[in-house]
């Protein structure tokens, strides 16, 4: 990436900050509607999939609710047609996505390709152009650090001391958070020291590396930050952190409490983003999550895609991302339950509506060493292990009984089952080998006919525990 792209990223970031600070709500909504119309027309004109979907709709008169809903399965089925550019084939996308050597590189030298298992366990592929990627990064930067982009603060972390930023993420695949840290204009590294740490590393090794790096900022997943807080309370992790941010899952009350206890005075902010749209919402210092309405439309809907009123928990959300014009996602379904409040005027002064995201339901596993000590294993590293396996359609990991794990999976082609099971076994073996529970756990792997969503949950519970957490894990 070039210096021009870095400058462009900062311009986008400044604009994003100015809008949030000075624009009225009415002005934001006008801007949002303009961008919405523009992406709909663009998709209709350039993407064969949307052209088919909208063929009988008068786009001049149509309301957003008149447009059909799309989802991951549909986009996957028509992957090539979902794009607004020709000359990118499905096979090229899949080949690149499953090539371990391509991780952290640009697809075809100019696109950013990311994969997700998301919340249904079906792996999705999403691509955008480099310039759209820069916009996304600029917006995320401005909205993540919204209260910190002041001159004294910038002075402190550029002139006085170089900001050390630890991104503790899944780094063995095309995961969006990893790419955010990795695919950065190289000039940015003169201003700050951004280092990537892999969550699949054994905890003791990671703690050692973090102690050495001694970061000011840490970004990771809430369940992982919680596990780090336990390490800090146990005296093994010695870093003093100023700012923590998290993504991919909402915080549980217990995680927030233990983090505050372990890292005194730390500011913790949550982000709501997905691979499909990174910049959905960011928390302010009053702990309210504000929707980035100048870059995304979020509709809270019931099971039949009808809008639910403000203050009511939705069954799903439909997102429209204004940034990605290469692969438009318009009214794209996510199985998140959210509560939106458009009329709440937050003390921070933001014109954006606020959103509460109901918890994703993956669990942290507490596994025991032979000596009887408990170790926390957050869910995301496990998810990362599965995402590397080709031909896997869906998976579920269950902590059945203390230290006994059950893997259930569905493959794309049953002929591949033997290889898939071998790979799952190898990945888990590799992962646990360097931990001190290695000689104390058992794993069963079985092919499953169907993995369904329990009636009480919005989502398939992909990684969950039937074992109660111990009262005190240290
Ligand atoms: Zn606020």
Features:
binds zinc ion, seven-stranded mixed beta sheet, 3 domains, four-stranded mixed beta sheet, alpha/beta, Rossmann fold, GMP Synthetase, Chain A, domain 3
Structure description:
- This protein has a seven-stranded mixed sheet, sandwiched between helices. A four-stranded mixed sheet has the order 19-18-17-20, covered by helices on one side.
- The chain has 474 residues and is α/β, with parallel strands linked by helices.
- The termini are far apart.
- It has three domains: 3-133 and 273-357, ANL, N-terminal domain (Rossmann fold), CATH 3.40.50.12780; 147-272, Rossmann fold (3-Layer(aba) Sandwich), CATH 3.40.50.980; 365-465, GMP Synthetase, Chain A, domain 3.
- The radius of gyration is 22 Å and the shape is globular.
- The protein is 34% helix and 22% strand.
- The site of zinc ion has 7 residues, from loops.
């Amino acid at each position: 990436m070039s210096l021009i792209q870095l400058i462009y990223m900062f311009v986008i970031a400044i604009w994003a900050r100015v809008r949030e600070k000075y624009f009225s709500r009415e002005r934001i909504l006008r801007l949002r509607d303009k961008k919405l119309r523009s992406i709909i027309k663009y998709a209709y004109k350039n993407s064969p999939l949307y052209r088919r979907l909208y063929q009988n709709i008068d786009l001049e008169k149509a309301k957003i609710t008149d447009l059909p809903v799309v989802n991951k399965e549909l986009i996957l089925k028509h992957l090539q047609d979902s794009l607004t550019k020709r000359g990118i084939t499905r096979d090229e996308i899949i080949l690149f996505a499953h090539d371990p050597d391509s991780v952290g590189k640009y697809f075809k030298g100019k696109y950013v390709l990311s994969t997700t298992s998301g919340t249904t366990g079906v792996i999705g592929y999403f691509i955008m152009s480099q310039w759209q990627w820069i916009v996304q990064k600029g917006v995320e930067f401005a909205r993540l650090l919204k209260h910190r982009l002041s001159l004294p603060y910038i002075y402190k972390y550029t002139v006085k001391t170089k900001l050390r930023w630890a991104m503790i993420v899944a780094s063995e695949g095309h995961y969006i958070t990893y790419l955010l840290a990795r695919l950065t204009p190289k000039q940015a590294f003169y201003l700050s020291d951004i280092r990537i740490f892999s969550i699949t590393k054994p905890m003791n090794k990671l703690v050692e590396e973090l102690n050495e790096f001694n970061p000011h900022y840490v970004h990771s997943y809430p369940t992982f930050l919680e596990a780090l807080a336990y390490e800090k309370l146990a005296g093994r992790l010695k870093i003093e952190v100023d700012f923590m941010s998290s993504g991919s899952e909402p915080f549980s009350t217990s995680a927030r409490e233990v983090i505050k206890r372990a890292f005194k005075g730390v500011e913790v902010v949550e982000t709501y983003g997905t691979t499909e749209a990174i910049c959905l919402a960011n928390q302010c210092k009053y702990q309210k999550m504000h929707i980035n309405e100048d870059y995304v439309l979020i509709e809270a809907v019931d099971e039949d895609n009808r809008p639910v009123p403000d203050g009511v928990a939705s069954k799903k959300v439909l997102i429209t991302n204004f940034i990605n014009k290469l692969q438009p996602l318009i009214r794209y379904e996510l199985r998140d339950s959210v509560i939106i409040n458009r009329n709440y005027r937050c003390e921070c002064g933001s014109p954006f509506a606020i959103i509460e995201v109901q918890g994703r339901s993956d669990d942290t596993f507490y596994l025991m060493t032979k000596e009887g000590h408990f170790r926390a294993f957050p869910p995301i590293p496990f998810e990362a292990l599965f995402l590397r396996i080709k031909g896997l359609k869906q998976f579920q990991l269950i902590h059945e009984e203390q230290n006994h794990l059950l893997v259930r999976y569905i493959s794309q082609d049953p002929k591949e089952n033997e290889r898939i099971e071998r790979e799952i076994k190898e990945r888990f073996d590799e992962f646990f080998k360097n931990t001190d529970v290695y000689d104390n756990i058992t794993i069963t792997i079985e092919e499953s006919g169907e993995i369904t969503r329990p009636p009480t949950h919005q989502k398939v519970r992909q990684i969950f525990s039937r074992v109660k957490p111990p009262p005190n894990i240290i």
